[in-house]
Design a protein that fits this description.
The protein is 52% helix and 13% strand. The protein has 341 residues and is α/β, with parallel strands linked by helices. It folds into 2 domains: 3-243, P-loop containing nucleotide triphosphate hydrolases (Rossmann fold), CATH 3.40.50.300; 259-340. The longest helix has 34 residues, at 175-208.
Amino acid sequence: MAAGNRAAHRQTFKEFAGLLNLDNAADFQLLMTWCVCALTPEGPYPVLTVCGEQGSAKSTLVRLIHELVDPSHAPLRSLPSSEKDLLISASNAHLLAFDNVSTISAATSDNLCKISTGGAVALRRAGTDADEIFLEFKAPIILNGIGDLVLRPDLADRALFINTSAISAEERRDSGSITRAFNELSPRLTEALLDLLALARSKLMTEKAGLWHAGKLPRMAEFATLGMAIEDVFGEPGSFTAAYDKNRATAADDLIESDPILFTILELWDEKRCWSGTMQDLQVEIARRLKTSGSRLPAPTGLAQISSHVKRIKPILVKKGMMVAFHRAASKDRRRTLELF
């Protein structure tokens, strides 16, 4: 990218950032990287999750991002309650933006993971008994709501979190003036994003040729590689990795507060640095610690549910420095035991 274009694009991005209610430049860098990623046909795509209190311009931010990446007459929609409706939407749109999401069920969370990284499903054709239709889907997703939306670790590991703060009466702008400013900026902004995409493609080609290397990669490696390829437009070398690592670490910490199993295991680790017991032992520890702390989180009731969830949160536990192993007891009942070390 020519130096003149780089300077012009930086000014364009500065003007666009002024239309968005973001807390810091790192969030803007992550958001623009997500937009470039959303322009690619192959993905996979992090699930962009925009959270904030009422009156923090969440819907405005999502509407502008949708208009920039995938202009549509109906940019914002409600999150479908049925799996079939969600997957049909994913197979017919390039970008899905769900507004005012309050809760995400376990099944919907799993389906959002599938859409983010790509999948397929066979459905029975309406009016027939034996005919099927085959739907393939992979699409960028935006979720917008108040409070913590992503409460399952597998979706959290695929998500990018952007938080917005309340806007004071003195700083609030009417939507009409924001739309006019965006429409005026849109041609230059689109050009800047496409130039970033071209820059990323060029660097990825040189990486294949052994002339450039992204380094150590986290989950959603394609997104991380793209972010590293274009980071010098937004900041110093390493700025993307620092922003993305902090985003993921904050998400993991937020997840701890809403997950009684994860919370209990981390407390056990902090206290003892090693622990071994059955799923029933862990269930007793969870109930005791929730009662002691006065937490209103519901205690898990099923041993199979606890075992399955520990497997889901294992990547978070490993990042915290512990090893997690499952064994079968030598006793007659062959109960499953968990070992932390």
